[in-house]
């Protein structure tokens, strides 16, 4: 009946990556779903240009896509990256695998992934996606949304019975929860911004750098990274201080940008023919971490994805964590038979320590990528860690593969990683080369550490 439909219907605010995947999960469970999205339908913008912005998709994200049967389709258009390639200031390269031989993270187009998800959402019976609907306000007590129809600039109200806030780092739903009793909230910005730039394709759409890698130009206080696209280009991201001697503030003219890139990224600069246009046309993005709790209001509102836990991008886990939210919510619904209050309570209690840990790891990895990966001692340490892991596979899974290639809760992975760091701090003073690992006294130290783990 219509009454039952109204009561069971779900409203999802935000048709981005997490909102559209959540819509798919919920529609396939048989709920009527309405998605409200501020932006125009991205599928009407014509074919995706080659230079679409990409993201690193890893195992937690893949599992969530497998849950709705679309992992294979996405994998077809993803590019596996098996490790990092570091570029020093003389253009010399070093590399570091991400995990075991066949383990890779995948570079996928953000727009392409969002479009694929939206196509599938709209094929589901009982789902309506409404674009260009901006949420201005949420009255959580009376379950009412204040919306603006963007094309006509008309404001109207709409009731909901259950609302999912998948509206990103600057969530309007979270904004409404902030006005409820005992709601914890914090946000913190890095003193760094980011700028997306491009490396051109070579002849006949070839890749001018190693295709199957994530490239890093670590420079101590800043860095640039690049991920491959299908058309031979790479999307680069410069992570750079807002202020200071090397900063956005210090680069004001095309000539300054050209000079700076030729000096500090000498092997990349010649591959970036549109550098100065990109630099001055593309916006400078900021990098925020958002923490809040609770993520729910009674049994009627739940936050997920960036709306609940926005993190800085250095572990490539923001979307993956948001997709994992969908997997976990789906599992809990299965177990708890639609007692929404119980599901929301369990969900936020289970997820919060994990996304907090992920937020910390993301900041930690920034220091590693921009600074430590350029240090030969650090690279030696990573080699020793993989030897330990090969010798004691049950006791030692390094942090990166645990986060990226496992489903171990983030908080457990982070605790393991911190224990491993302490052990390495004790071992490394005894190790000066890879061969030292096989010395009897080093082997004895390692054995003692493993016994204590
Ligand atoms: P969003 O993608 O932000 O989607 C929110 C949606 O809600 C949008 O479509 C928006 O238009 C809509 N919306 C917002 N407000 C309203 C409103 N008031 N009314 C109606 N609609 C609204 N993650 C990875 O896993 N791997 C990576 O490699 C990676 N790289 C990144 C690189 C950078 C530079 C950045 C900034 C992030 C990166 N991330 C990465 C993180 C990832 O982008 C986010 O975690 C992910 O997009 C979160 O998805 P979401 O759906 O929760 O939010």
From TrEMBL:
Its EC number is 1.14.13.9. The chain crosses the membrane at residues 8-27. Residues 8-360 form the FAD-binding domain. Keywords: FAD, Flavoprotein, Membrane, Monooxygenase, NADP, Oxidoreductase, Pyridine nucleotide biosynthesis, Transmembrane, Transmembrane helix. Pfam families: FAD_binding_3. It catalyses: L-kynurenine + NADPH + O2 + H(+) = 3-hydroxy-L-kynurenine + NADP(+) + H2O. GO terms for molecular function: monooxygenase activity. Gene3D superfamilies: FAD/NAD(P)-binding domain (3.50.50.60). Its cofactor is FAD. Pathway: Cofactor biosynthesis; NAD(+) biosynthesis; quinolinate from L-kynurenine: step 1/3. Catalyzes the hydroxylation of L-kynurenine (L-Kyn) to form 3-hydroxy-L-kynurenine (L-3OHKyn). Required for synthesis of quinolinic acid. Belongs to the aromatic-ring hydroxylase family. KMO subfamily. This is Kynurenine 3-monooxygenase. It comes from Hymenobacter guriensis. The gene is kmo.
